[in-house]
Design a protein that fits this description.
620 residues, alpha/beta
Length: 620
Amino acid sequence: MRKKGEKYVRLRSFDVDDEYEISDCEQKRWSSVLLASIGFSLGVCIVVIGAIVSESFGTQGSIAVTDGFAVEKAQISISMKKPDIIHIVVDDIGQNDLWDSDDLPFQSVSPNIHSMVLNGIELKNYYGQSYCTPARVALLTGKFIHRTGFSYASSHHYGDIEIFVDSNYSVPIDPTGQSQLLPEFLKSVAGYSTHMIGKWNLGHCTEAYLPWNRGFDTFLGYFGDGIDYVNHVSNGESSINLGPDQIEVEVMDFMEYEDEASFSWDAGMKYKNEHTTILFTNAALKRLRKTRETKSSTYIYLAYHGLHDDEQALTHIERDVDLKLWKSLDEFFNYTDRRLNFGKALSILDSEIGLILDYMKEEMHRRDYLIVFHSDNGGSPCARHICGNNMPYRGMKFSDFEGALKVPAFMYSPTLFGKRGIIGRKYRGLMHHVDWIATFLQVAGVPDYHAQLNATTFDSVGHWNALLDVAVSLKSEKYAVRDTIYFSLSDDSYVIRQDNFKLIYGYENDTWYSTKTEYEHLSNCYSGLTDYYLFDLDLDPTETNNLFYHSEYRHIREKLLTAGRNAYSDQAIVFEKTRVLNDDSAYYNSSLAYAWLNSSSTSIKFPAPWDCNTLYLDVL
């Protein structure tokens, strides 16, 4: 909290693409690391032998590391196993919401997240998708979304690519096993136990689509696009009429699966009235306590609900915020109501993530572990309840500009990074959601991970070796690992980045959104005008200078258009996407009613699968 008369300042200014330089301070750090590693290596053999004899997970040491800030000491671990991975995905948090925010000072609002950025590796050119479902599809499949049927044309915004509580589709299943999801790879190839907490959003209309049938050992969370934070009622479908008798029910989208023997569709009832941010953190800590007692490596996919724009974002938790601090912040920054609520909810989310960080430091230090953090898509300044922001980037969630696609991300590991002396680095490599499968297989030490990922069907590439290489922090190495991202393709519209150039062809325009304006809801934020854009993102990261109509860039434009057409023609799949409650089909409506009404409560129902038609890749 600031002292009287003191201004809130950011420790870092907006940094578009500054070169990685080794400062005097960092040179001293490297010298310290070298000296420490020489002394440390003398005892490695003895330590390793002792670890093997005692069957312990490892031992720890520490070296003092300085990076111009007050930085934590690095934990040095000699691990006998693959590192545990805690994969934190936050919802609708933009570039102007965390450590680069111009109105939410990280010292006060998100100090725990910032401490991990400071002591980890910031991913400076990390990209997601502009919608919730496509973002998670890309993340868990390792494929650009046109390969899985979740790409979209400009005339079909939102409705047919988001999976809602009553959607009749999911990521298609490949009976040959060549299109496994991320947890399936980590289980079958790397030997991990896999656990999911939070937002699934990949489909649930048939048993085959459920998270515990697609690679996760356990699951606690919800299936659809959003729920109320406390009562867990499905977003947009809080009360519906089902079946021929038109029975009115409340749809509670919350499930728990530990094993088949103990499972019931209404098991989520016991969590009603618990705020999802607190609930998911507690579930993660419970899983980590179980992990600590095992020798197997664990992957936890923690897909937080926060800060999706749903009702009850501050219910039951506003009492936990520092009201005096926020009164002072509000006086200084003059927040809009929805921006103020966003900041408060973010501070609680940061505190909860801090609990996980503290547990890892205190209880898991004898195991190698890696924390990955990123948002699914950009912020939504036109939201109804809590507003994220993407300034200075153009656009918002649902658009195709950088504000929707470029998201905050980092990797943190005192053990894996500390012993290599690479704490506090900025990784410049172009990276996308699809790249986590390959990167995690590298982290797990799978020597032939390329053989596991057929390049003709997967787009995932591994960044791990580059992340550990200081040379790749240089701007000149930005495209060494990945040079192309296909954000969305249809038969007549394309969003592609290739090296420094980005093409938006046939999609809606969008603008820059200030934190000082209380925008009307989503439908009033778009211009509705379709246009064509070409940007040089190395020179123009905020997309202010459209090069599409410049004759000297015609060859670039044609090159990207050709790439988009070819990729769509060779790789894209398309299937019909319907929703039960928008469908006149008596079969689907009765089927859904039967499934959803099959619970112990007469007034609260859970979205159990209703036996939709399962999609298979070999027949699409």
